User: Fold this.
Amino acid sequence: MIRVGLTGGVASGKSTVSALFAELGAVVVDADLIAREVVARGTPGLADVVSEFGAELLTDEGDLDRPAMGRLVFADPDARKRLEAIIHPLVHRRSAQLEAEAPADAVVVHDIPLLAEGARAGSFDAVVVVDVPQDVQVARMVGDRGWSLADAESRIAAQATREQRRAIATHVIDNTGTLDELRARVAEIHAELAARA
Assistant:
């Protein structure tokens, strides 16, 4: 087995890269997906979030109001730390469980948006960073996702810099080209990692 950390800034195309790795047979452990699971309606994780931040962060249906939570934690570093203290241990436990279930010769890709921020890069055999310039990130968030310029810049500012992400990389994927170019680069990296696994 080879353990791979996959990261990239918001709107870098990391989710697309993650899906391409999965198509090639990698076992993908998606931290964002798991982070949603551990605070789903009725979970102890959601109860802990409500206890810490209040029931006003719930929708009428009893789900976590993710946009409201996002606005709170990306504007307030202390609130973000308190939320991470609840969610990160739950995500780590579930990620370890999924990895333990993977085949012995697997390429296990841990899709972790905040890998550079969490100082965990050294725990992986390889780190793949999906990289685009900041102006591309902003254009994608505003143009494709309908975010305001202020929200886009706030989200980028809350994350590690490009330089910090690139500093932890064993492999960098430039995602400013076409989907075919992206697919080819992911296949090249996957082949190398599979050979090592």
Observations:
- The first strand starts at residue 2 and ends at 8.
- The CA atoms of residues 12 and 184 lie 17 Å apart.
- The mean pLDDT is 94.
- Strands lie at 2-8, 27-30, 107-111, 126-131, 171-174.
